[in-house]
Amino acid sequence: MPELTPTLRTLSCLRKGECAFITGIHAPDSTRSRLQAMGLRTGREAEVIRCPRIGPMQIRVGNIHLIMRRCDAARVSISS
Amino acid sequence: MPNTGKSTFFNRLTGSSSRVGNWPGVTVDLLSARVVLGGQAVEVVDLPGIYDLHGFSDDEQIVRRFLENIQLDLIAVILNATQLDHQLPMALQFCQLGMKPVILINMIDEADQLGIRIDVETLARDVRCPVVLLSARHGTGMNEVRAALTTGIQNSTPVSLDRLRSTLHADDQLVEHAEALVKKSVIAPSRLVRKMTERIDRVLLHPWLGLPLFLLAMFLVFQAVYTLGAPIQDAVAWLLDGFRSWALVPLKGILPATLYGFLVEGLYDGIGTVASFVPVIILFFFFMAMVEDSGYLARAAFLTDALMARLGLDGRGFVMLLMGFGCNVPALMGTRVMRSRSLRLLSMLVIPFSLCSARLQVFIFIATAMFTPQQAPLILFFLYLVSFAAAFLTALIFGRRLKSDEPFVLELPPYRLPVARQVLMRGWHEVHHFLRRASTFIITGVVLVWLLTHYPNASTPGGAGTYASMLGQWLNPVLQPIGISPDMSIVLLFGFVAKEIVIGAMVAMTGLGGSALTGYLHTQMDSVQAISFMLFVLLYTPCLSTLATQRSESRSWKFAGYSTAWSLFLAWTVSYGFYQGGRLLGY
Questions:
Q1: Does the N terminus or the C terminus of chain A have fewer Cβ atoms within 10 A?
Q2: Average pLDDT of chain B, as a whole number
Q3: Would you list the domain boundaries of chain B?
């Protein structure tokens, strides 16, 4: 029976001021390792501080604020 | 770790006795210094800041290589007191390897302000390592740090390097363990609010105002550097000139003519012209250090990343490019903040096209000599545009080959007031490093140019009968199609050493100055040739100092070579297109 893959909600879907819990990082090893080291770990809460129409996003995870490109943010899946 | 005040701490601990050196098995130079701890002389090495010992970035690999190859007596890990939950795992990674690190929790002053309290005894007991709280910025806790380091060294049991190599594997369990420890010993408000930083960012990162404010800030930095730098430059030039007339000219009768010419007119004058630019370079280093330390660099990267991403660069690359408009050298050294080597190389390929202040000097002279006061500013503006275009074109073309796999994730730190002492020390250190590297290049270049313009027969420097003029004739087939006369070709040779020398070279070659020199220029070129010449000077090669820095920062002669080859090619093509096009249009 074919498996249906539901479309994942990712960080890049969030708008300014929205929060969500991180459920996973979908990226090759080196990228995942880097994102995790910057604080993006499963179970942590992420809040979008800034989200301009073009350019990177500003995201708060814990006490650390990060600048992330949308394409990289799209690798971090979240729960609603 | 990055952003933990590691360099501040290192400077506190070691004073200014640090030097940069090479270590076996490690591909980059590391900063180290000798300190006396507990009566013993100890060598302290500053390893790159990393987030994860088992990570994949260049810095993390460097640290691992270092650990695998050098038998250490002690590891000290420096963490940020306000981010212990994020950072403690890394320190625990050393415990896992069997090394007993001394954990130094820095920025305790900031933690206090935010209401964070740390139970050092419980934490130290749980991790089974010494833990010390300190503020490197204010110097508090340094005595306890020294004591902990001394004890750590005395009680050290060296870890077998082979065991290390086999144990360096990733470990996610550490994170949960660390989180539990922190929960037990660290009391912090549930969410830290960075009020001041947020307020400032509302303005500086404003969707409309942000970018213009950034450009304004850059403009002000340039203004400041020139306002401060110009009098210092004049003073240095005055000193060098004074020494020359007082101590060196009298030697004219005593030394044989050739030796005098070589030492004074060749070596001293040549190096002197380059040296008089060092104050400006130093100031740019300081401002770069301030932009980085204050946290503004991250904001600039945020604002400019959208454009830069299209070119395969990132926001920080743009700031470096702008810095390059002052002087390429500090901008090239500034690329160290980039962890990905390919990104760094791409940035270093692009920065030399920035229209630096030395080149500006040459252009102002030629533009005012050859064009009307209405035309000259337009010509200069055109040259700036070409500079940007060349940079972006280079990024587009080479971006594909030098693709970076690393995600662009940067920390946006709270704003910090740069500590004057730290900025000065760091700036001074970078300048010292650069001078040491570049001086061999510069001296060689100066000597070479002098030899070429005085042998075998010299009536005037670079005149008929010298190798330089022969070179000029030999290059004529290549340079004539872009409108550059043989005499001007020799000037280009000087320009290779340093653009600042170009005007001085013309003076030396012709024996003319001021308005007479302007007249001379008119005999060498017309308007179209003038612009073609300036385009060539803008693009063909940066100065020797920049080349030296490119080589030392990339650790590759091949890279510096490629960069030079590309620059020459682009310069010739652009000049050719402009010159021939201009002639075709009837100018």
A1: N
A2: 82
A3: 6-187, 193-587
Q: Do A66 and B410 touch (CB under 8 A)?
A: yes
Q: Do A34 and B298 touch (CB under 8 A)?
A: no
* CA–CA distance, B301 with A57 (Å, rounded to integer): 12
Which one of B54, B407, B411 has the shortest CB-CB distance to A65?
B411
Find out whether B537 and B362 touch, Cβ atoms under 8 Å: yes
Q: Are residues A16 and A22 in contact, defined by beta-carbon separation less than 8 angstroms?
A: no
Angle CA B374–B377–B378, to nearest 5: 85
- Per residue in B31-60, pLDDT (tens digit) is 888 888 888 888 899 888 888 787 666 677
Six token digits for residue B406: 């690393």
- Judging contacts by C-beta atoms under 8 Å, the chain B residues touching residue A41 are 175
pLDDT band at residue B577 under the 50/70/90 scheme: very high
Buried/exposed code over B312-340 (b: 16+ C-beta within 10 A; e: otherwise): bbbbbbbbbbbbbbbbbbbbbbbbebbbb
* Residue B407, both tokens: 């995600």
Residue B567's identity, in one-letter code, is S
With CB atoms and an 8 Å threshold, state whether B407 touches A39. Answer: no
From chain B, pick out residues whose CB is under 8 angstroms from the CB of A30. 56, 405-406
Q: From B56, which residue of chain A is nearest by alpha-carbon distance? A: A30
The C-alpha of A1 sits at a distance from chain B's nearest C-alpha, in angstroms, of: 35
Residues 6+ apart with CB under 8 A from B328: B351, B352, B354, B356, B542, B543, B545, B546, B549
Question: Would the pLDDT of B171 be above 50?
Answer: no
Q: What pairs with residue A50 in β-bridges?
A: A58
Q: Is the pLDDT of residue B123 over 70?
A: yes
Chain B residues near residue A54 by CB distance under 8 angstroms: 306
Separation CA B413–CA B399 (nearest Å): 28
Chain A residues in contact with chain B using a Cβ-Cβ cutoff of 8 Å: 27-31, 33-39, 41, 50, 52, 54-56, 58, 62-69, 72, 75
Interatomic CA distance for residues B587 and B583, integer angstroms? 5
**Cβ contact, residue pair A72, B192, below 8 Å:** no
In chain B, the residue whose alpha carbon lies closest to the alpha carbon of A50 is B205
Distance CA B393, CA B91 (A): 44
CATH architecture label of B6-187: 3-Layer(aba) Sandwich (3.40)
Burial class (CB in 10 A: 0-12, 13-18, 19+), B458: middle
Contacts of B34 (CB under 8 A, 6+ apart): B14, B17, B41, B42, B43, B44
* Residue A51, pLDDT above cutoff 60: yes
Superfamily assignment of A11-79 in CATH? Ferrous iron transport protein A (FeoA) (2.30.30.90)
How many Å lie between the alpha carbon of B269 and the closest alpha carbon of chain A? 49
**Nearest CA-CA distance, residue A21 and chain B, Å:** 15
Q: Is the pLDDT of residue B299 over 70?
A: yes
